[in-house]
Amino acid sequence: xxxxxxxxxxxxxxxxxxxxxxxxxxxxxxxxxxxxxxxxxxxxxxxxxxxxxxxxxxxxxxxxxxxxxxxxxxxxxxxxxxxxxxxxxxxxxxxxxxxxxxxxxxxxxxxxxxxxxxxxxxxxxxxxxxxxxxxxxxxxxxxxxxxxxxxxxxxxxxxxxxxxx
Length: 165
What we know:
The protein is an alpha+beta fold and 165 residues long.
């Protein structure tokens, strides 16, 4: 009987081997498709909150932006202080916000010069006055971001230098 099977020139293949080969091919296709999906998905965290599978939100990266020039003002004659020099840093959300701030820095610098120059120097010598100025700067910078780009967020304003003579 073995001689009859060999005469045809073909040996019978086992159906178990065929099933194993098909199963292995399917596993490789599914794994390759999964890897391709995750690699092609791209970066969806473009400065916005993204929910993960477990429901936790990812916040955009927090970065510092230092104004390139200090705010230098002359107070009116008759005030106790004649000159003021303030250096400002900002804590912002995402690199896109920094790009908008850099692009609009002349407008922000102008607004802050006008804002600080309009303050009473005796009020700025107090902690409450400095806090009021910090909040006013935060509001002004946020207004510029909304006006010029419609997006971006400044979380905090920091005085890195505050000198009054």
